[in-house]
Write a structure and sequence with these properties.
Length: 220
């Protein structure tokens, strides 16, 4: 995750964006942003090293080009602001259903998870999860989803094996009350795992490739 001070600096220099390029020099940046010239130079070095910008020396300073990684950070910021300003009690995300590695049924049969999920969601989860790969429109929400307040399940040991922490969010899908499970460690990116009291694949005749919308409920 980008350092907040570095991100604010990135936002400031990005305001000079002209057709995807910016011309800056550390002397003028230091005066405008009220920081030392050394700090301005150091921040540019960090942004280049971490892949947020590319730099090229020119006669009157430096030509800066934002990378895709920088634009992704701005999208995350935008979605966070949209969430904060959204007066609705829910946020909607979309994903494409796909089959995972088959581990969901194993993990959702562990008593350490089942008991805690039941406490929070008021249902015993079906021994399996639905895996949704977020669509491009929802991808930047991944950052928001992972930072939403939810119910935390601490790591535990069961049958001689250690199981990792998860976070659970309340949600609705296809008119059903469900939960979104966010493992501390996962094999997938841009993926949410859905738990429910019944086998939703069977109940709604769902197939891999189906596009589904999930409403995440805000905690009061």
């Amino acid at each position: 995750m980008i350092d907040p001070i570095i991100f604010n600096f990135l936002k400031n220099i990005s305001m000079r964006n002209n057709a995807g390029k910016m011309v800056v020099n550390t002397s003028s940046l230091s005066r405008e942003l009220k920081i030392s010239q050394q700090s301005a130079s150091r921040y540019l070095i960090i942004l280049e090293r971490e892949g947020y910008i590319s730099r090229k020396r020119i006669k009157n300073g430096e030509e800066i080009v934002l990378t895709e990684k920088a634009y992704d950070e701005f999208k995350k910021e935008l979605k966070t602001m949209e969430y904060i300003l959204n007066s609705s009690n829910e946020i909607k995300i979309e994903g494409i259903l796909f089959s995972g590695l088959g581990e969901g049924s194993y993990y959702m049969s562990r008593n350490g998870y089942v008991t805690k999920i039941k406490e929070f969601l008021n249902f015993i989860p079906f021994a399996g999860t639905l895996n949704l790969r977020l669509t491009d429109d929802s991808t930047s929400f991944n950052y928001v989803v992972n930072n939403l307040p939810g119910y935390s399940v601490d790591p535990f040991e069961e049958d001689g094996r250690k199981f990792g922490a998860i976070k659970v969010l309340r949600a609705k899908m296809l008119g059903e009350e469900v939960g979104i499970v966010l493992p501390e460690r996962t094999h997938y990116e841009r993926v949410v795992e859905i738990v429910s009291p019944s086998n939703l694949r069977k109940k709604f005749n769902l197939n891999d490739g189906d596009k589904l919308q999930v409403s995440i409920l805000k905690e009061k």
